[in-house]
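Input/output pair, single chain:
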Amino acid sequence: MPNPEGWDTRVSNEQVKAAKPLGDLPLVVICQSPNKPLFAVYIPPLLTGINAKLQQIWQDLQSELAGLSSNSTRVIATQAGHDIPNEEPKLVVDAILKLVNETRSQ
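Output:
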């Protein structure tokens, strides 16, 4: 699979494994819609069942990420795929403003 972002999967996996609970730190997790095919560009049509399983795993991991804080919100970007900041920038800005406003009011 191509790696246009230059990510280091090994390092990323180690960082995820090392993640600790965040207590009540405000957290917003923005996820792509579960209806968007996760790896459709890379997976031939015959493997759509695998793509569906990968999408479910991805959604489960996003829920787990939101579970790191007792003060988290999970937002679904219904119109976006992988590039949420460019595909739904207002959603990202609104999430940031929500966190800033909540923090200021405390």
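The chain has one domain: 22-105. The mean pLDDT is 83.
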